Amino acid sequence: MRQKLSGWGRTAWSYSDVVTPSSSQDISAVIAAPQHRGVIARGLGRSYGAASQNAGGTVIEMANDEASPIALDPRTGVVTAGAGVSIDALLKYCVPRGWFVPVTPGTRFVTIGGAIGSDIHGKNHHVDGSFGAHVLSMRVMLSTTEIIELSPSIRPDWFWATIAGMGLTGIVIDATFQMLAISSSMMHVETERLQNFDALIAAMGSSSDDDGYRYSVAWVDLLASGSSLGRGVLSRGEHATRDQDSRSEPLVYNPKVRVSAPPWVPNGVINKLSIKAFNEAWYRKAPRRRTESIESIAGFFHPLDGVRQWNRLYGSQGFIQYQFIVPLDQTDVLRTVIGQFADAGVASFLAVLKRMGESNLAPMSFPTAGWTLTLDIAAGARGLPELLSAVDTVVLDAGGRHYLAKDAHVSPGAVRKGYDRFEEWKTIRNEMDPTGVWKSDLGRRLGLVDP
Amino acid sequence: MKNGLGVAQSIVLFGGTSDIGQAIVSDLLRPGVAHVVLVSRNIEEADRFGQDITQRYPDIDVHHVRFDGQDAAAMTRVVQEVVSLVADIDVVIVAQALLGDGIDFLQNPHEAIPLATVNFTATMTLLLALGHQVNQQGYGRIVLLSSVAGERVRRSNAVYGATKAGIDAFALALDHELSSGGGSILVVRPGFVTSKMTTGMQKAPFSATPAAVAKSVARAIDSNARIIWTPSILRWVFMVFRHLPTALWRRMPF
User: Within a domain: residue A434?
Assistant: First the structure.
């Protein structure tokens, strides 16, 4: 059925023929039928831009927590799950058994297929790397409908091209990966306020004690100016130990969605004033000195999941999430970019700063040793194309790049400049899909695939 | 493919020398636009605008396609030619039209044929061909330059007004047809616009410049609007005109 789709940012809507398969046979039947405008798999639609929609073509909805059982080896923590299974379902199954996902993004509502296709990262990237680093093997359906097994040792080039391949190499059917042993479902968290950008960078830098924490991320107030420019709240944590968690059943896991955003929100509710007030409150709420606390998994990793469909708060215009990374020594570039946004008067909630660890072997994987900054911006902001184009240039000239799972605007040239192994990836992609079946709006716009 | 900021990667203008059409294209240019296709009869003239674009945005590829606004039968082929240049069409502006000012159609009935052909028959064929394309794409915005002249046709420009009334009505129905597939049509009803087309004519009330029309069109392209009036007050003026009793309408000073 033809359906209007967008990413989580609710911009660049287009219509695709959406099918919901109930088996891998269904998927192969869809692929085998003549496809004028190609096919792409879609999980829970949490990529912000147009990665999981295919204007005029076919979209296969994969998200399904019931489709295949989660097979967890309780001794080793090796788990096999269907591509459509969400991290939410995985956590509900595995946390009570003492295992946590190796990587979680800021939402638990992503599928395993999406986690692989975007090679997602989380607060532990500086220690554990991205999701792809933990995948032991996966089964992928090629455009010939053949299902093959890929792993770091079986067809490694195809394996790594599928990690961060944005779904354009094949459809992940299921994956086997290593979970992390935990003894409590609570997090031991340290929070502190840092009064400006230099203090923040010093606290998170590679020569700091940041590597001593498995999870680390900072929130930056991009509206603070003068001596407070770049002030923020640094939050770091570990899975709590048995001594830190006094509950009789330390592995109980019961995340809740508290409220829903209203179905219709007028444009402009999120504006400079409301953001400024929010940012101020968030900063003031954080303790002045390093303070320890015990938080839930949901509270620490997935605070926004507490508000269902929070993406609607931006109104009909939608929003974009701008995420880039620059090498570790380019902290001046971060300052320049923060200044560019401040000068343009573009406000952002919860700009997030994180120091990332080394990259993995996937040619299109986003994270690499460096600083990543993430901003949410209302898509209707005046002069945004000009501003972002100027910021893109600064980022790319500094040897940086943009995260495709978030992208809604960069140029085809920006991908080629930012990802120096792009052509290598495209060659492998074309070899995996010689007839050009896999297509998405993102792929078309950026020339990741032929139109 | 359009991006998340509403920037069209490919913009196509039918009637590549049209003042209003060019003003709309100019207004849509910003970082992210990759292709502009000017479809015109006189490529040399259209290229003056093409060179302006290249000067402002060196990264944009400007393409030319030749067409004859009277050749209704060729429209499908012309659209295919455009598609072969840009793959998907994000925004297309249909601006070709003849005004026929100063012609005594009663004395020269055959003079009505080119107006009817360019403004109605060929434009209808073109809209159908474009409609098919955006339907296949699953998205795409078609902008038709209609006119307030079609809202209630006046004696002084009966032929022009009637062709605009016809194409306007057709476009609205075609938009309905396309809506379930992702494409849409924006019908623009400008009043008197000071441009090449109206040089030497006496200005009507509420006249506008091409740049002013372009500004409201560019805004409307990014919205869900199906019809816009420029300036917007004309919507209310013509709502009154439309319902004036004939006896009164015929006494209006135009």
Answer: no
